[in-house]
Amino acid sequence: MASAYPPAASTQPTLPSGPAVFKTVPYVFILPEILCGSWVWILVAATSVSYPLLQGWVMYVSLSSCLISLLLLLIYLFGFHKNSENWKVLDSLYHGATAILYMSAAVLQANATITSESGPNLPLYYQLNSAASFFAFITTFLYILHAFSIYYQ
Q1: What distance in Å separates the CA atoms of residue 129 and residue 116, rounded to the nearest whole number?
Q2: Residue 150 Cα distances to 49, 50, 55, 78, 94, angstroms
Q3: Among 51, 149, 55, 49, residue whose Cα is nearest residue 99
Q4: Which PROSITE patterns match (predicted)?
């Protein structure tokens, strides 16, 4: 006997693919994360890197996060995720962990900026370090925003 009720519609939102990635929150944050993260490692690389341990960590976090986020963007663009719920969990865990790593890198870069106030080529390296600190904190905020918005989606 046939049921009088229509089949239940899926309440799970679908993961975007193709150009819809650039129009859907939280996936719209991926491109700004990549761009701001790129600025961080470009600006740090443009300085004299007076503090290799501090700024080496900043370079590692920014470069690896940029490459992994680019890979994640390509996965979403080409639809390799196959609309699996596991990708949402992976995305949320990745962006949450990266937000924590980026916060540590941003604080270390800010410390390198403060200590570079009294070094050789004072105005240029201080300004580059300041800009790198600014973009590191902006990138941290973007990763936090992405992690929480996918969690609450």
Answers
A1: 8
A2: 36, 38, 30, 20, 11
A3: 149
A4: MARVEL (PS51225)
What would the pLDDT profile of 6-42 be if each residue is shown by its tens digit?
555 455 557 777 888 888 888 899 999 999 999 999 9
Could you write out the DSSP letters of every residue in 88-111?
A: HHHHHHHHHHHHHHHHHHHHHHHH
Q: Tokens for 6?
A: 């229509």
Is the distance from CB of 81 to CB of 15 less than 8 angstroms? yes
Query: In angstroms, what CA-CA distances link 139 with 20, 69, 145?
Result: 22, 12, 10
What pLDDT sits at residue 64? 97
Quote the pLDDT of residue 4: 60
Q: Which two tokens stand for residue 29?
A: 């944050």
Of 123, 124, 67, the C-alpha closest to 98 is 67
Tokens of 107: 């604080």
Threshold 0.90, pTM exceeds = no
Q: Cβ(101)–Cβ(42) under 8 Å?
A: no
